[in-house]
């Protein structure tokens, strides 16, 4: 069997760039947990820079959001804790340095290019305040998530759950997450605009400026989609939004406060004292008990999250590219290890598959390793320079990057998956359940109903075994319900922490 290096052809041998990229995907043979080398196993292409830049912008925004949520939640829940923006940025820089080297450049770049990068668990961000109030400890939560994730990956549970999720259920999940995420970013842009003093804005109204930014974003994104260059959406739209905001007179709101240098990389600084860092000290048994329901919930949400990212590869890659599709179980292994290591050195991120990298990479028809190495270097540079973080977390840049790089593509992918009436039925139930509860329960319930032929494609259900029909879906449903009840995610429920 010929190697990748032997099968490689120069781009000039193909009619167009797309054919060349398709051929590259079809001839790659990534080595699992073995050294993969540029030139021998993969090549760097300029398209790799786009998902790398998109992932860098996305992870800065997401990490900062997580740390600010922790800072606000812990400061409110604990009398002796006062954490602010400076703390959030410094911890974000810790998260960007060590994990970037170990789990982006080394792991996904060289050792296992089929494992998607370990990034951020976006759907968990709104829950962080509840996690803090419940008495959970970030380090205890990280250890539990890592252990549960490793157990699931060892027994191939992640890929099994992905295979049991039909296109209808997956499409409904993508549509719901895409719409809710897009609405949140649109609201955030408008709120940012209205929060500025109109007297300092050249156009006289920040709401008007926010509307202009959103309107131009739609035009730019539509144009890129028309010319089949959607993979340029994050850098193009984010830079456009930055320019419009500055020209509109909102530059006074952009403050450069982060200095160049390295954050404190000594774990003792963050976890070894109650007078500095997190001000929590090391976790005790009570912290682990309070963190367990949230850890179960986070790991339960991994499968639909991973599924959504792999779907983008399947939709944009040509045929005969199974060897370069992201491996769900390997990705789960890397996310679990990265969760424990990143938090142990002082971080606080809740990890999942890196969507702001994978989605643009899939659209650009690029495999994981090349862009992963570029991304790791970019993240390291940003973490050291400091000031680019201030630009990336500025609302018009952060919100537009997330809007066009994650949420709009999710909506498009979900709609494309829901083509048959049976798929539409399953998708509708999934969306409806998510609206009245949350996406995790929606996925679990819709998967159970769909696999038993109560909704969706009955012919598909008839081919499944009893284990795939009842045992696994029902177990997942019961676990999700138990975890959700415990942490109080049902509307109107208080959760077990209210009675402690």
From TrEMBL:
This is DUF3360 family protein. It comes from Tamlana crocina. The chain crosses the membrane at residues 49-73, 124-155, 167-189, 201-224, 231-252, 288-307, 368-386, 392-411, 423-449, 469-490. Pfam families: DUF3360. The keyword Phosphoprotein does not apply. Keywords: Membrane, Transmembrane, Transmembrane helix. It comes from the Bacteria. The keyword Signal does not apply.
């Amino acid at each position: 069997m010929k190697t990748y290096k032997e099968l490689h052809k120069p781009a000039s041998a193909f009619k167009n760039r797309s054919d060349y990229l398709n051929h590259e995907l079809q001839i790659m043979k990534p080595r699992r947990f073995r050294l993969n080398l540029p030139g021998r196993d993969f090549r760097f292409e300029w398209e790799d820079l786009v998902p790398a830049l998109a992932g860098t912008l996305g992870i800065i925004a997401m990490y900062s959001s997580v740390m600010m949520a922790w800072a606000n939640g812990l400061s409110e829940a604990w009398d002796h804790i006062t954490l602010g923006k400076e703390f959030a940025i410094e911890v974000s820089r810790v998260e960007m340095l060590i994990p970037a080297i170990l789990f982006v450049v080394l792991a996904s770049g060289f050792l296992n290019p089929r494992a998607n990068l370990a990034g951020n668990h976006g759907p968990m961000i709104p829950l962080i305040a509840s996690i803090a109030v419940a008495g959970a400890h970030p380090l205890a939560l990280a250890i539990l998530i890592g252990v549960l994730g490793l157990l699931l990956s060892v027994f191939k549970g992640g890929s099994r759950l992905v295979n049991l999720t039909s296109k209808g259920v997956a499409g409904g999940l993508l549509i719901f997450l895409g719409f809710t995420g897009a609405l949140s970013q649109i609201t955030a842009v408008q709120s940012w605009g209205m929060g500025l003093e109109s007297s300092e804005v050249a156009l006289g109204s920040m709401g008007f400026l926010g509307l202009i930014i959103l309107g131009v974003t739609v035009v730019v994104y539509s144009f890129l989609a028309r010319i089949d260059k959607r993979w340029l959406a994050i850098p193009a739209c984010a830079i456009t939004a930055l320019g419009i905001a500055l020209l509109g007179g909102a530059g006074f709101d952009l403050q450069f406060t982060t200095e160049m240098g390295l954050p404190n990389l000594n774990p003792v600084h963050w976890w070894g004292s109650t007078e500095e860092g997190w001000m929590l000290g090391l976790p005790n048994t009570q912290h682990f008990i309070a963190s367990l329901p949230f850890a179960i919930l986070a790991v339960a949400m991994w499968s639909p999250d991973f599924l959504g990212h792999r779907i983008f590869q399947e939709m944009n890659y040509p045929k005969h590219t199974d060897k370069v599709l992201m491996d769900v179980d390997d990705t789960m292994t890397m996310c679990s290890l990265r969760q424990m290591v990143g938090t142990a050195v002082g971080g606080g991120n809740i990890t999942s598959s890196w969507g702001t990298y994978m989605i643009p990479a899939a659209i650009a028809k690029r495999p994981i390793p090349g862009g992963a190495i570029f991304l790791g270097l970019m993240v390291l540079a940003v973490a050291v320079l400091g000031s680019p973080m201030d630009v990336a977390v500025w609302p018009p840049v952060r919100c537009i990057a997330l809007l066009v790089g994650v949420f709009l593509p999710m909506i498009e992918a979900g709609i494309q998956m829901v083509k048959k009436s049976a798929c539409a039925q399953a998708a509708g139930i999934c969306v409806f359940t998510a609206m009245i509860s949350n996406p995790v329960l929606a996925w679990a319930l819709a998967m159970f109903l769909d696999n038993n032929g109560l909704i969706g494609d009955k012919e598909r259900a008839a081919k499944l075994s009893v284990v795939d029909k009842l045992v696994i879906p029902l177990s997942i449903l019961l676990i999700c319900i138990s975890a959700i009840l415990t942490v109080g995610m049902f509307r109107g429920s208080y959760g077990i922490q209210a009675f402690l």
